[in-house]
Design goal:
The protein is mostly helical. It is built from seven helices and three strands; from the N terminus they run αβββαααααα. The longest helix is centred in the last third of the chain and has 37 residues. The radius of gyration is 28 Å and the shape is elongated.
C-alpha cells in the first residue's frame, strides 16, 4: 500500500513537472513550484486553456513579488485551443472524462487506483463541495442568529407595551407585521 502511494505521488509530480515545462517554467527550483488549479470552466472568461498568474504588490503593481510561485490555472473548457498536445490531452480528459493520450491514460489509471480506496475518497472534498458546505453552515448560523435577535426584539417590544399598559397593541404586534414595525419605530426598538 505504501509503495503504491509512493508511486502515485511520483506520477503526480511527473504530471506537474511536464505541465510546468510545457508552460515555460524551465529552470525553477523545486521549492518554487507553482500552484496548479484545474478548472472545468473558464474562471477568467478569456477562452485561454492556461493562465499563468504572477503575484504582484497591490500598492505598486510594477513591483513583482519575486517569489517565483505563480498560479497556473488550467481551463478544461478551452482544451481544443491548446497548441500543446499533452496539455490538450489532459484538459480534454478533465472536461470529458475520456482518456486518449499517454498522460491522460496515466491519470485515468491513477484515478482508478484512488477510487478503489473508498475511505480516502470519502475524506476528500472538491473545492465546490467544501465551499457549499461552508455556505450551508454559514446560512444555518445566520438563520439561528436572526431568530435569536428577532425573538429578543419582539420580547423587548412586548415587555415595553405591557409596561405601558398597551395590551391591545401586543396582540396587534404579534399578528400584524406592518403594525409591529410601526411599534418598533415608535418605541425605538
Amino acid at each position: 500500500m505504501i509503495l503504491r502511494n509512493f508511486k502515485a505521488v511520483r506520477r503526480q509530480w511527473r504530471l506537474f513537472a511536464a505541465l510546468r515545462l510545457r508552460l515555460g517554467r524551465r529552470g525553477e527550483r523545486i521549492g518554487t513550484f507553482p500552484r496548479h488549479f484545474f478548472c472545468r470552466h473558464d474562471a477568467y472568461g478569456k477562452g485561454d486553456p492556461a493562465y499563468v498568474i504572477e503575484r504582484r504588490c497591490g500598492a505598486h503593481p510594477d513591483l513583482a513579488v519575486g517569489d517565483a510561485s505563480p498560479w497556473v490555472v488550467l481551463n478544461a473548457s478551452a482544451w481544443e485551443a491548446s497548441a500543446d498536445p499533452g496539455l490538450r490531452d489532459v484538459l480534454r480528459y478533465l472536461r470529458t472524462g475520456e482518456a486518449e493520450g499517454p498522460l491522460s491514460s496515466e491519470i485515468d489509471a491513477l484515478v482508478g487506483v484512488f477510487n478503489e480506496d473508498r475511505e480516502w475518497v470519502d475524506r476528500v472534498l472538491t473545492y465546490e463541495q467544501e465551499t457549499e458546505m461552508r455556505c450551508r453552515r454559514a446560512r444555518e448560523e445566520g438563520r439561528e442568529e436572526g431568530r435569536e435577535e428577532g425573538e429578543a426584539r419582539l420580547g423587548a417590544l412586548v415587555g415595553a407595551l405591557l409596561a405601558d399598559g398597551r395590551s391591545e397593541d401586543v396582540a396587534a404586534a404579534v399578528e400584524d407585521k406592518v403594525r409591529r414595525e410601526e411599534l418598533y419605530a415608535e418605541l425605538g426598538i
